[in-house]
Amino acid sequence: MKISENNVILQVDNVDASYGESKVLFDICLKLKSRERVAIVGRNGAGKTTLLKCIAGFVKPTRGTIVYDGMNIVGKRPFEIARLGLKYVHQDKGVFQDLTVKENLELSSYATGDYNWDRVFEYFPKLKSLINRKGANLSGGEKQMLMIGRAILGNPKVLLIDEPTEGLAPGIVNDLAAVFCELSKASALIIVDQNLSFVSKIAQRVYAVKEGRIVSEIKDEQSIKEAAYSCYL
Ligand SMILES: Nc1ncnc2c1ncn2[C@@H]1O[C@H](COP(=O)(O)OP(=O)(O)OP(=O)(O)O)[C@@H](O)[C@H]1O
Hints:
Layout: E1 8-19, E2 22-33, E3 37-41, H1 48-56, E4 63-68, E5 71-72, H2 78-83, E6 86-89, H3 101-112, H4 117-123, H5 126-129, H6 140-152, E7 158-162, H7 170-183, E8 188-192, H8 196-202, E9 205-210, E10 213-218, H9 224-228
Parallel strand pairs: 3-8, 3-9, 6-7, 7-8
Antiparallel strand pairs: 1-2, 1-4, 4-5, 9-10
Bound molecules: adenosine-5'-triphosphate.
């Protein structure tokens, strides 16, 4: 592991990104320390998912650098970045619908060489009882558990998680908050979420994004919720 002295595992500097002629990210700079929990908030279409996709290699920035574990990863392909230990949990994809929970986990184990499913079941005991159920027949919350469970195989250093609470009941959202705090003992997390009460429970720092730019960085836990609202105005 090459984590730098100040413990920064991921550093994004001056990143721009476009879809064709349409520029959606402007001069994005952010950093993430080892085992830190950072949230990104902002309105629909602000560019949050695009930012995660740039970091994970699905969208290539038109400018800037993304240094992960001491290495500029711009231009690397998503599977290469995942193999280096930086995993992206998509907003609505990631569970193979026709495969069972077991088969879904097997695919990730095959890719990572990590067959320690006990760790997955420690975080998400319910998955054990659903082991033979097909992905298509899982509830939204169960799918979310499976996607995160798959992502933690291989012990990633960084997890990027896109809208984990979307469509989930409040009880499950609370459980997820506890799981994320536990997960961050092993991996640093960047979570994109519009649920500000969830964000204020889990995030140690928040970046607010508006129209493709980071408009504020909020470090004070007391004011995370209040300040995060500013990017919705
Ligand atoms: N594949 C694409 N091709 C063209 N434009 C895109 C594509 N994906 C996203 N966009 C546009 O880029 C902008 C940023 O989208 P992005 O999905 O990153 O925003 P977001 O903040 O994650 O939004 P949401 O909260 O609704 O998921 C939006 O204007 C969106 O329409």
